[in-house]
Design a protein that fits this description.
5-stranded mixed beta sheet, about 400 residues
């Protein structure tokens, strides 16, 4: 509804009325939390979520069939909508039942767990999810079924750890990312500290973003100390990430950013954003307004297995092996020298089929390919364990 531009306020009012008179079901309470966040009130959304999760932690999502062929248990953290894998999109129209269990602070996993065939961690490597990840990790040896995306592997994805994990892969470039405080940024702005004092290869221009931010919020390229001073006038967060800027513009002056999804080690094209600005992501690239951009994206998807993937096979294969997750996404680009430039890897980035089929007719088949691969992985892993046990 939100992506299509529907007005969420009437539904918000209806659900608020049910919540106030005590007739709202727990699932409707989570819907209300999500609507509040989509309307821009994150704090209200999280407050509603806390109230709902205080008494109800297990939720079943609608399934396409009455008798599911597979039951998936997803371990989630009680956090904002961008910090858990949006796994519902991946299982859209499948014959797989999804149960989501929210791991609450100071609460261990319930015993026994809901009956399931396979489990997956959908919490992210963020500060808000760390407690949940620790609890899942402690319980992992006792789980009765296979666990995908184990916490110890998820915990390598935050920006200041990923570059250390991937450093040394042939054909791959990932700038060092360092966590710094507001105070250190202030010292950079005053000139009492130079970028190279933080990292040897760090120099202006630098990329700065608040720690824990999503979708480019607070992201900026700062060319000098004065630019940092202006940035701090508007950003009062206490922790930031800083890294060097890499100019990845193509010969035509446009920036091309790719989202690749890895499923059981295999890469799939997810989207390609093209813009005349370096800080490009799909929603600011104007893809729906440009037929030429859409043609290029369609060609990228059509030739991915014979073009992009073979071109970067060494880097993609090593990245899948070194990250070690069953499912994750990578946002990346190609440098002027042809290497794979990695911006971030994530297990919670959105992979969806919500774009208009009239504007993007090539997307639905590609997304169905991704969704089918994800479902096949779940079935294959669950079947392997059953056969091994037999």
């Amino acid at each position: 509804m939100a992506v299509s531009g529907a007005d969420l306020r009437p539904l918000w009012k209806d659900l608020i009325a049910k919540l106030l008179d005590g007739t709202a079901e727990a699932g409707e309470g989570l819907d209300l939390s999500l609507i509040a966040q989509l309307l821009g009130d994150k704090q209200a959304g999280l407050a509603i979520q806390r109230e709902i999760l205080a008494s109800h932690q297990l939720f079943r999502s609608p399934c396409a069939v009455e008798k599911p062929r597979l039951r998936v248990l997803a371990f989630a953290a009680a956090t904002d909508m961008g910090s858990n894998t949006p796994i519902e999109f991946l299982l859209e129209e499948s014959e797989i039942e999804l149960m989501t269990l929210y791991i609450m602070p100071e609460t261990e996993l319930p015993e026994p767990l809901p009956d399931h065939d396979i489990a997956i961690v959908i919490a992210s490597d963020s500060e808000e999810c760390r407690d949940a990840l620790r609890r899942i990790e402690r319980a992992a040896p006792r789980l009765p079924r296979p666990l995908l995306n184990p916490p110890h592997a998820v915990c390598n994805l935050d920006r200041d750890k990923l570059h250390r994990l991937l450093d040394g892969i042939d054909g791959l470039e990932i700038p060092s990312t360092t966590g710094i405080t507001h105070e250190i940024l202030s010292e950079l702005s005053s000139g009492s500290l130079a970028p190279c004092d933080i990292e040897v290869d760090l120099a202006f221009p630098v990329i700065v973003r608040p720690r824990g931010s999503h979708a480019g919020a607070g992201l900026a390229k700062l060319d000098d100390a004065a630019a940092i001073e202006r940035y701090l006038d508007q950003h009062h967060e206490q922790e930031f990430f800083i890294s060097r800027f890499v100019d990845y513009a193509s010969d035509d002056g446009l920036f091309r950013k790719y989202r690749i999804v890895f499923i059981d080690g295999r890469p799939f094209a997810c989207h390609m954003a093209i813009a005349d600005r370096w800080d490009v992501w799909y929603l600011n690239a104007g893809m729906s307004a440009s037929a030429s951009k859409r043609r290029e994206e369609a060609e990228f998807m059509r030739t991915f297995d014979t073009g992009f993937a073979p071109r970067h096979e060494i880097a993609l294969t090593a990245m899948a092996d070194w990250i070690g997750l069953d499912y994750f996404t990578v946002d990346c680009a190609e440098t002027k020298s042809g290497t794979l430039l990695v911006f971030e890897a994530d297990n919670t980035a959105i992979v969806h089929n919500m774009d208009s089929p009239n504007v993007f007719p090539y997307k639905a088949p590609q997304m169905r390919k991704v969704f089918d691969a994800f479902a096949a992985m779940l079935k294959r892993r669950a079947r392997y364990i059953r056969e091994k046990a037999a």
